[in-house]
Amino acid sequence: QVQLVQSGVEVKKPGASVKVSCKASGYTFTTYGISWVRQAPGQGLEWMGWISTQTGNTNYAQKLQGRVTMTTDTSTSTAYMELRSLRSDDTAVYYCARSTSWGGSYYSDCWGQGSLVTVSS
Amino acid sequence: QSVLTQPPSASGTPGQRVTISCSGSSSNIGSNTVNWYQQLPGTAPKLLIYSNNQRPSGVPDRLSGSKSGTSASLAISGLQSEDEADYYCAAWDDSLNGEVFGGGTKLTVL
């Protein structure tokens, strides 16, 4: 079955970086994009960006430009999200999701289990 | 402050029909399709409706989505206790060049 399995809990100090992985299985990795969405404690969902697994092209949320990098390794069907210069308000559960984008339609039909990143001194 | 506007809460009794609204603008709902996600406590979001009114396989037909202009809604009929969850609408925003979400609606089954 289609599955996205993410890396585990991370605890980081302010100013550090974190890299979360997302390993896909059960489908051809390069036929869908990968989105990253985060959710701060008790808050709603926030889209971080998207990467094409075919071309490596990326589209990042404006507020994260310059701090986030999304990459993929097609040989292992794994996507990565690196966030730098961490602040306390980056504390959140980070989700990867398999995404489809065509015309005016964009949706994510399979999600990873989430990776908790805590930023604290 | 979310780009898409949802009521923070909704409720209904078992068997009832409830609707959740989602309001946006011409740059998002007005020009792109709307999706709905369900999030049970402590779990990842699950796609319920995509492209305004399409259900992924496995989603029961008592859930339906609609869109008109810059607004959309999710309807749940035959409400069940397992429907108690947070619901989020989402759409692509052409001005922000990214996906935007509503703030979420917490559905309580009384």
Mean pLDDT of chain B equals: 97
- Helical element count of chain B? 0
Overall strand count of chain B = 9
What Rg of chain B is obtained from the alpha carbons, in whole angstroms?
13 Å
Write down how many β-strands of chain A occur, each being a DSSP E stretch of 2 or more residues. Answer: 11
Describe this structure in words.
The complex is a heterodimer of chains A (121) and B (110). Chain A has 121 residues and is mainly β. Chain A is 0% helix and 55% strand. Chain A starts with a strand and ends with a strand. The mean pLDDT of chain A is 97. Chain B has 110 residues and is mainly β. Helix content of chain B is 0%, strand content 45%. Chain B has strands spanning 9-12, 18-23, 34-39, 46-49, 63-68, 71-76, 85-93, 98-101, 105-109. In chain B, the strands form 2 sheets. In chain B, strands 1, 3, 4, 7, 8 and 9 form a 6-stranded mixed β-sheet that branches. The radius of gyration of chain B is 13 Å and the shape is globular. The chains are: A mainly beta (121), B mainly beta (110). At the A-B interface, strand 5, strand 9 and strand 10 of A face strand 3, strand 7 and strand 8 of B.
